[in-house]
Records
---
Amino acid sequence: MQNVIDSLTKGVAEAFPGRELHYNRAVMSKIIKGRFITYDFAFAPGYANILHNAHGLIRLLIRDKEPALLKDINETDPVEVEAILYDHRFKNAGIKFRKINAKNVHEAVKKIVSWFEKNATAMQDTKFTD
């Protein structure tokens, strides 16, 4: 699963050439009944380098499509990806995220990277000054 996590962060970084990404991190998270991948993305660190204060923060949750079981993700299982757009400026810029359904985590990574590539210009044009 580490190769999936690595390819996600690498693919998103390639969508923003020459731009330093302060948060571009995917981790395997565990809850009582299973595992999921959490991906955090932001252009700039927040106050005191606290993640939830970061400018342009987006969090993607990649989990198995069997919500009742909340089982561990296998690389061949169908998954769904939901997003939390923490920063209202992305919403105001018209950047929308619709839930992604994929046949497996590799396909989900391709769809996520494609979404970032499609919205890269609008994301970079978003002003984060207060």
---
Amino acid sequence: MTLRLVSPDRKLFLIADEDDLKAVAELYKLTSKQKGNIRHCSAGLVWATAAATAMTALSAKRSENFMLFHNIYG
């Protein structure tokens, strides 16, 4: 499943694999912890529960203001 990730400067990135995430991380100079937070943020796509949605919102606050597209325009 491709992750649709929106950057703080409102650019949409399609993340299909680890290489895509690495490219975005390099572009925005993210730390490994920040990349991990974005990975955690994407876990909400796998779990379709209210608890996962709340966890995804919390993760977005910890991932340098990157947000999942469906949380913005859902």
